[in-house]
């Protein structure tokens, strides 16, 4: 199931942006050079049976990284990674890999980032 790296703000994070950079480092081993912009945000409601319902505000950022050549995944978070073009995301297929998303919002976030790159989207 496909999802982008992410997480929550820890008490030790100075700001939301520090949290985003830390999560990218922890989950993918990538060093953030700078946060380019907020791509989008959405509300996620986590409703697990037997547990209290939790509502999350998810903020998604486009980040510039030192190098995407040395991705090192946290094996408890992600098992593999791939880079996809906008067309591949639209088609839900990268080479022989069929893309399945953790939620419809995750695909929407990726497509919104491509739109913004073309100057068509709005955060």
Can you walk through the features of this model?
By secondary structure, this protein is α+β, with helices and mostly antiparallel strands. The protein has 3 helices and 4 strands, in the order H-E-E-H-E-E-H. It has helices spanning 16-28, 86-91, 104-117; strands at residues 32-46, 54-65, 93-94, 97-98. Strands 1-2 form a two-stranded antiparallel sheet. A two-stranded antiparallel sheet has the order 3-4. A hairpin with a 2-residue loop joins strand 3 and strand 4. The radius of gyration is 15 Å and the shape is globular. The chain starts with 15 loop residues before the first helix and ends in a 6-residue tail after the last helix. The relative contact order is 0.20. The model has no long low-confidence stretch (mean pLDDT 91).
Give me the side-by-side strand order of the main sheet.
1-2
Beta-strand portion reads: 25-35%
Instruction: Count up the helices.
Output: 3
Major sheet summary line = 2 strands, antiparallel
Overall pLDDT confidence: 91
Q: Extract low-pLDDT stretches.
A: none
């Amino acid at each position: 199931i496909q999802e982008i790296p992410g997480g929550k703000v820890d008490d030790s994070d100075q700001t939301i942006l520090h949290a985003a950079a830390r999560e990218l480092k922890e989950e993918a081993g990538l060093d953030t050079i700078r946060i380019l912009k907020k791509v989008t945000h959405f509300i996620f409601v986590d409703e697990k049976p037997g547990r209290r319902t939790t509502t999350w505000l998810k903020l998604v950022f486009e980040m510039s990284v030192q190098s995407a050549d040395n991705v090192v995944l946290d094996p408890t978070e992600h098992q593999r990674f791939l880079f996809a073009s906008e067309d591949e995301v639209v088609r839900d297929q990268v080479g022989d890999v069929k893309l399945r998303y953790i939620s419809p919002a995750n695909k929407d976030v990726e497509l919104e980032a491509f739109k913004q790159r073309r100057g068509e989207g709005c955060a």
